Amino acid sequence: MWSSSTSPVQRQRCTAGATGRWARPIIGATAGIGQGDALAGWYELRRVPEDRSVEIAYFGLFPDAIGQGLGKHILSCAVRDAWALEPARVWLHTCTLDHPAALPNYQKRGFAPYKTETYEVNFPS
Q1: How many domains are there within the chain?
Q2: String of b and e for 67-91 (b: at least 16 CB within 10 Å)?
Q3: Residue 80 is part of a domain; what is its CATH number?
Q4: Does 21 reside within a domain?
């Protein structure tokens, strides 16, 4: 668990039902992270049994939490929880639509590019 006497982040535990499902081959577990009574962000982990990895499938902050330095703490919780599952590797996706601080945050938590793809998506107008 992330702990710091000066950190405003408090990790909220997953429900017993969510953690009990880790025995299944592929499962998501979501953790909400709060600041006081307000939810600041969340992450979801997904086991990938084919290569014994864990994906940080979803990671995000709510708008009111952006710019407060909370992303590094929440991502650190996600990384810690992912490695606690003893995978061969931990990974995530990012793209140019993510917040500009996302990629530097990932790199500061030890992530490095593994694979890159380039494609275009046409959004309906």
Answers
A1: 1
A2: eeebbebbbbbbbebbeeeebeebb
A3: 3.40.630.30
A4: no
